[in-house]
Specification:
The protein has 155 residues and is α+β, with helices and mostly antiparallel strands. Among the domains are: 2-37, no CATH class; 58-89, no CATH class. It is built from four helices and three strands, in the order ααβββαα. It has helices at residues 2-16, 31-36, 101-107, 122-152, and strands at residues 58-65, 71-74, 84-89. It has a three-stranded antiparallel beta sheet with strand order 2-1-3, with no helix packed on it. A hairpin with a 5-residue loop joins strand 1 (58-65) and strand 2 (71-74). The longest helix is centred in the last third of the chain and has 31 residues, at 122-152. The chain is flat. The relative contact order is 0.05. The mean pLDDT is 77.
Length: 155
């Protein structure tokens, strides 16, 4: 109930600005004043509308093959013969690093047993079979008792 009164009070306070007159005799708030502060289109709401995009930053990478035939990469100028200069734009997308399969396997939980399959010792298996047989005997006995009761009225 208190929440309703709070909502009504807030609405009256906000709506009252349209009716209360200011020092110049005009209402403190008008619909025109309210709408002039809103943007004309959604694109005007985008951040950095007036910002001029900076020139892309370029990184120089030097690439060469060493005496063993292995490619070497460095951001420092190489004195090696045949070093090739590569310019890489820093405005490219970043891709997640590759994780070896061993690292991924450690993160995953491995079930202790195959779901739906139970592993028991031979002794436990024999005990389970005895329990099942005893249960079957109990069910058969109760069925026979039910049949005897239902057949008593038919005789």
């Amino acid at each position: 109930m208190k929440i309703k009164w709070v909502i009504i009070a807030v609405l009256l306070a906000c709506g009252g600005l349209f009716f209360v007159e200011g020092p110049d005799g005009a209402p403190l708030m008008t619909l025109d004043k309210l709408l002039e502060s809103l943007p004309g289109s959604p694109s005007e709401m985008l951040p950095g509308k007036d910002v001029i995009p900076a020139a892309p930053v370029v990184t120089r990478i030097y690439k060469w093959k060493d005496k063993d035939g292995v490619w070497q990469f460095s951001n420092l100028a190489a004195d090696e013969e045949g070093a090739e200069i590569m310019e890489i734009d820093n405005q490219i997308n970043i891709v997640q690093a590759f994780e070896p399969a061993e690292a991924v396997a450690v993160k995953k939980k491995v079930p202790k047993a195959i779901p739906g399959v139970m592993t028991v010792s031979p002794q436990e298996a024999a005990d389970l079979l005895d329990t099942v047989n005893n249960l079957q005997e109990t069910i058969d006995q109760r069925k026979a008792d039910m049949d005897a009761i239902t057949n008593m009225g038919n005789d």
